[in-house]
Every structure is written in C-alpha cells, then in structure tokens.
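Why do we bother with a discrete structure alphabet at all? Because it lets us treat a fold like text: something you can write down, compare, and reason about line by line. To make this less abstract, here is a complete entry for UvrABC system protein A. Read it the way you would read a sentence in a foreign language you are learning: slowly, and without expecting to understand everything at once.
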Amino acid sequence: MSERKDEIILRGLKENNLKSIDLNIPKEKIVVFTGLSGSGKSSVVFDTLATESRRQMTLNYPLYVRNQMPRYERPYADLMQNLSPVIVVEQRPIGGNSRSTVGTYMDIDPLIRLLFSRIGQPPIGSANDFSSQSSFGRCPECGGFGEVIAPDVNKLIDFDKSLREYAVKFKPLSPSGWQGNWMMTCGLFDPDKPLKDYSEEDLHLLLYGPREGERAYAPFHTKNGPHNAEWDGLLPRFTRVYINRDISKLKQVSQDDVLAVSTHSLCPTCQGSGLNPEVLECKINGLNIAEYDQLELPEILEELKKIKDPMGESIAKQAIPYIKQLVDMGLGYLSLTRKVGTLSGGEAQRVKIARHLGSSLNNITYIFDEPSAGLHPEEVNMLIQMLKRIREQHNTVIVIEHNLSVIKVADEVIEMGPGAGVNGGKVVYQGQLEGLKNSPTANALKHKLNINKTTRDGKGYFTIREAKNNNLKDVNVDIPKEVLVTVCGISGSGKSSLILEAFKERYPESITVGQGGIGISNRSTMATYMGIMDDIRAAFAKATGQPAGLFSFNSLGACPVCKGKGVLTPEVAFADPVTIPCEACGGTRYSDEALSYRYQNKNIIEILQLTIDEAADYFIQQKILNRVNTLRNVGLGYLTLGQTTSSLSGGETQRLKLANQLQKEGQIYLLDEPSLGLHAEDDEKLLDVFQKLVNRGNSVIVIEHNLDFIAASDWIIEMGPGGGKQGGGQIIFEGTPEEMLNAETVTAKWLKDGVRKDLA
C-alpha cells in the first residue's frame, strides 16, 4: 500500500484573477509562492487558503461567540481540503498608538509588571500600578507621558504680524477659527497692529491673560448679538485646551500640530519614565521597573535568570522565550520601551515575526507575506534559519517572496503567472527549484548583477551637518545632486533617520514616497486614486450636457439598488456572509441612466474597463495622458482604470503610490525601499523610471537593500556599522559601486558576492 501524502488540496480556485486552478500543497515543507506582482500569489494564499482556514476555525465556536468574531465569506473555489489552522504574518505596518512599545506589542510588559508586583521591594500593589496609564502609577507631573509639554511663544507667535495677518501660527487660534475671530472682535486688542508694537500691558494681556486678581471681559459676537465671556490669555488657553486634555478626540487638530508649537523636555519628577516616584522605589536586585525597561534585551535576560524566588522564577520563565525570540532575530540592541512607531521597516518586520514564534503548537500553517521586506541581505540569513526552525517543529511554511535567497531554500516552488492581472492567475510551475525553467523567476535566478561603471557626476551637493536624529551621531554628509543615490545599511543603522528626517528637515520641498499604505477602499479605483476620474467625468458632462455627478457611482450615477457597491450582501443571521453581484446593474455599480450616455462611442463603464495601455490610445486630453503614461512607466499598463485599489497586490500598491508622487513636478525625490513587493523583472522597469527622472535633471535618493539598485547607482552611502543606538548612526562608506567592490563593509561583502556569482 503506497504511503498517503499529507497535503492541502485546492481545486477550481477562482478568486480575483485565478483561472480555475488546482493545487496540491505539501505539508511540513517550506513552500514559496513567487511570480510577478499581480500574478495571483495573494489570491491563492490569502484570499483562498488563509480565508477558508479562518472561516472553518470560527465554525467550531458557539453562535453567540461567532457573532462577536470576524465573519469570513467562503472563497470562490470548488474544493478546499486538509487545511490546518493558519497564523498569518502580513506586510502591513505594526499598528498601535503613540504609547505602543516593543514590550507592549510582544506582551512582555504585563509579565514584567506582574513580576514587580509579586517580588519587588518595597511592595507596591497590583501589576496595574506599575503602568504609567493607571491612576496610581502615572507621574503626577507629566501625566504619564515622561515629558513636560508647554507652549513655545516663539513657535506660536509671529510678532511682526497683526492678529488679522495670522500672527498666531496655530490654526485653531488664528482668524480661520472662531477663537481667533473672537480675539479680533472682542475689543481688547487692535487686530491690525503688529504684535511687536503692542504696549507691554496689552501684550501681557494677550499672551498670559489678566494679572492676578483682575478679570478681562471680552464679548463673543455671534449672529444673535454679543455674549458675555472672559479673556483668559493665549498661552493659558492653549495649555488648557490642547495640552491638558486628550487631543485625539479633537477633529481639527492633531497631536503633531500641538507639538509643532510646543517645547517638550524630560519630566524632572519621573526622569522620562512616566511613573509615580513611589513606583520607582520598588526594585528587584537593585533595579526599578524603569531601569529594567531601559536595558537592552540580552541584559534583561541576564536579570531574569538571576531571579531565584519561586513565584518570580515562574513569571520570568514566561517572559524569557519572547525576549530570546527577539534576540535570535538580531534585535538584541532594542529595549522594551522602544516605541514601535520609531522602528525601521526591517526592525518592525522582525518584531512582527518574533511575536508569532513563541508558540509551541505544531501542525500549523504559517503564512508569511514577503518576510524579507526591509531586511538587508545579511539579515535574510537569520530569517531563513527561522523559517527552517518552524518547519522542523512539524509546521507548514508558506511564503510569498521575491527574494532569490529565500526562493533557493524552498522545498517546493510554486510560480504564478505568466503575466500580471488579467494575464496572470495560472500556475506556471510547481516543483523543486532545479526544474524551474523559462519563467520570470528562472530568468531572475540567472540574472547578472550589473555594476554601474559610467556613473554621472553630481551638479553640486545637498549638505547635512551635525545630524543627531534618533541614533545619528553628529553626521556630516554631502550628497551629490542630479544623480541616482542609494543609501544602504542593515536595519536600524540610521538610513531613514538620515534621509526621511534630517534631509527632509533641511530640504522640505522634497517629494517623499514612504512605506505607508494608500488608504484603500472598495470604492477607490485606479482612476480616482490618480485623479483621472474627475477629468473623465468632466469630459462626459461636456459631451452630454449632464451633471458630472451622473458619471460617478458614489454620487448621482449610483445604481439605485446596490447604491454603487456593485454587490449585495443579504442579511443571513448567524451564517457566513454571502456576497452576490447586483442583478439590477450587473455589478457595474451604475444606474441605467448613467450608462445610456456615451463619450467617443463608449459609456462610462466601457471606459473604466479600458486597460491603462488602451487608455493611452483612447484619450486625447493631455492631463489624462500624462497621468496614464506615469502608470505605464511604473509597469501598471495591464490594470484597468476601474480596478479597485483594494484588490491590488502589495507590489502593485507600491507602484501606484510611486506613480501618484511621480506625477508631481519636483526636483528631489526620496524613496523608501521602492522595490518592496516587486519581482526582479519589475525592478528593472522601476530602475528605468528612476534613471529617466535623473536624466531630466532631478535628484533621486533611494533607501534600498536591493543589490540591483545599489549596483546601478551613481553614488552609494552606507550607514552602520550595526543597528540601534550603540551600533549604528555613522556613515561607513561613500562612493561609487566600483569603489564599493574594494570596501570592507557588510553591503560590500554581498555586492562582491553577487559579482563573483555572475563570474562563475
């Protein structure tokens, strides 16, 4: 009797662009899905396999529990069998608020607080009392923030201007807001006199309010006449309304707006910990909880291992595996108090992965969405070892990946394609790497690293002096203008601090394309995101004499039955949700009236069904053609104008965001890892876009780990030598790609290795 193979069986997969494909995925192996961006990888792995596994898992819970859980619709497939529970590690940035730290994200902080509440001396009370967010635990001086925030009169006020000329630079207190209007009309202040010409008494009244024991009446004028009110002073009002309250509840102003006109200094009472002094007196082996949190992770491990108290030892043993996981991922230089919002892309990716690896469960399917994103080639090896470790614990590892080093360690490779979008959705190859031939990935594996030997000369320099942002150590650098510059280095070495902070502060006119999302929704399309839709609607309105809103499914043109959604989701009580196409509009989202009008022989839906390439031949308006050509330049010509942004792959989203920024006319472009989510074949298209930008007289500065980008640069800056405060923050190399081949840095090692492979 032949041995039965344990594998996931998938038949007739039709989600998104999948062409009714069949797959058998072996269990307890590393299976890598690869292929061009938009070829169907995510449709198989996330939209089918992960969604169905989660859907079936929720069926095990009682109805009243399921009603509180996320509801999953059955994927569009004929058969899905032998699925195991899934753990998904996606590319999305780590969430959390401004207080979220590595310790809270990894669930280590609650264990440390519990430890101090049980064995700390002198004893305090409950574990919650060791939190800066509890009423007892927070510092009475700074309210738990660790910083004392106060308005900065020189940032808030321009003394050369009058109130009417926006002397108050904080928008809610300027003439555009009711409070600024009140200042100008209350009769206490001359709204047209520059503040520098005010008498000392009037200026004191404006800034600080009436002197002690005095009151200043300031009628508040409305359409119903004046109302009695008292003037309290600009700075006291700012402190009361915008500092001493939760400003996240305010709609017109953000925390960043407030901090921009404030000074913030270390709280003298808690020394930045945000904790009550009583809490800080409680110690374990001579360290209080704030000192614990400031230690680097290997030091915390040593402290936890010293604990011999039976109760404390049992708590410490629960925290140790999480901390070791972070250290094993090369993040030993982090502390528990490091804010997750300040992590680099590569650091955040590894913290996210580490969070999911503390489990001792097996027979799980782990799904990773480009785990190498944001990682230096030096760090990818750690990732590979971690993937192997998960497999050895009898788990299945499914990875969507473009990184050739990760593809090479796969037990099985599944390539989707042959193209992207409507040209993809098929299985091009399944099997071991050796059998992969005549496909984009096979070509990428044979791809030669081309060292740029004809580098451009810069036309002057961008200068940065004594940069101290985050871990930068008084960095001085001259970056050549009008060339392609790549800034590289391992995660946490200071690349983003140098370019996205120090450089951006010095040259605020730069156009930045970061790693953030694009705010996608199922009503947002390629045409609306790129600003093409307004011009299309205007063309229809001009040609037909109808209002432009009739040609929008978010306005007058919406199908009356589905309200412009294109689908209906009938109420099915406790059953899984079901989405069906709207029969009234056939899924087009438009009303019959909207579809009855034509422009150049096409109705609105026929125009939205045009691909970007077809649109370039259809339209004559230069404004539309400029934006369409930008999309073609980044390799998105195969997508349709009406494709929803929520259906795009990670690589497509990255290029759409890039196209949206490239249509702006600027001289300096800063790009944070633009190759994220892109296949090697797509990299070449993107590099071509950057080279053309430079040829037109622009400066392009790219933060990248991708060796193809580094090799093609005119100038390279490497940060390092390590990561974090101790190891990074210095420039360890400046020069051309050819000069880097003679350097002894981490990136140089991999560049030389790539050249040697090409010569072999």
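What the structure line is telling us, in plain words: The chain has a mean pLDDT of 88. The chain has five domains: 7-93+343-446, 102-146+269-329, 148-266, 460-518+664-756, 526-647.
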